[in-house]
């Protein structure tokens, strides 16, 4: 199962990564008009739109376990360049609901698109916020 979410805005040709995981529990992936923050404390992916020098949270993505329990913690997070013809950054993340581990791969594209490939334990996603377009099987 895969979920695709697109944010409105200009297309960014570059994607950068800032890894503050060990110091602050955050991994940030940024394009020209957006930022996506994997937050250990929030147990979620927080997505921001950037406009006029301001960063406004537009979306929160929380993985769900088998009993529809939402993640409460992000246990680990590793980013690498996307492989093949795909452009952007691939992030392998392991979330926790307390008693369950939820794994997933998040592909963040230069245009702000986010593709989620659920792994072990991840039964779905809770997405809240402003979304321009979304496709969910």
Features:
mainly beta; 137 residues; 57% strand; six-stranded antiparallel beta sheet; globular; 1 helix
CA-based shape: globular
Radius of gyration: 14 Å
Tell me roughly what share of residues is in helical segments: under 10%
N- to C-terminal distance: 7 Å
Profile the largest sheet: 6 strands, antiparallel
The helix/strand series, from N terminus to C terminus, equals: EEHEEEEEEEEEE
Low-confidence stretches: none
Number of beta strands: 12
Task: Report the β-strand fraction as a percent range.
Answer: over 45%
Mean pLDDT: 84
Number of helix segments?
1
Order of strands, widest sheet? 7-8-9-10-1-12
> Which structural class do the helices and strands define?
mainly beta
What can you see in these coordinates?
There is one protein chain. With 137 residues, the chain is an all-beta fold. 3% of the residues lie in helices and 57% in strands. The protein has one helix at residues 21-24, and strands at residues 3-6, 16-20, 26-30, 34-39, 44-51, 54-64, 73-81, 89-96, 101-108, 114-118, 124-129, 133-135. A six-stranded antiparallel β-sheet has the order 7-8-9-10-1-12, with no helix packed on it. A six-stranded antiparallel β-sheet has the order 2-3-4-5-6-11. Strand 8 and strand 9 (101-108) form a beta hairpin. The chain is globular and about 40 Å long. The model has no long low-confidence stretch (mean pLDDT 84).
């Amino acid at each position: 199962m895969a979920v695709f979410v697109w944010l409105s805005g200009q297309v960014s040709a570059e994607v950068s990564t800032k890894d503050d995981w060990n110091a602050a529990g955050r991994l940030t992936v940024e394009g020209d008009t957006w930022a996506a923050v994997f937050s250990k404390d929030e147990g979620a992916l927080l997505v921001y739109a950037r406009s006029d020098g301001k960063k406004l949270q537009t979306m929160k993505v929380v993985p769900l376990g088998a009993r529809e329990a939402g993640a409460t913690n992000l246990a680990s997070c590793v980013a690498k360049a996307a492989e093949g013809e795909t452009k952007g950054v691939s992030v392998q993340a392991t979330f926790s609901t307390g008693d369950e581990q939820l794994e997933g791969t998040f592909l963040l594209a230069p245009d702000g698109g986010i593709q989620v490939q659920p792994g072990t334990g991840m039964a779905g996603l809770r997405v809240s916020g402003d979304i321009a377009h979304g496709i969910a099987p």
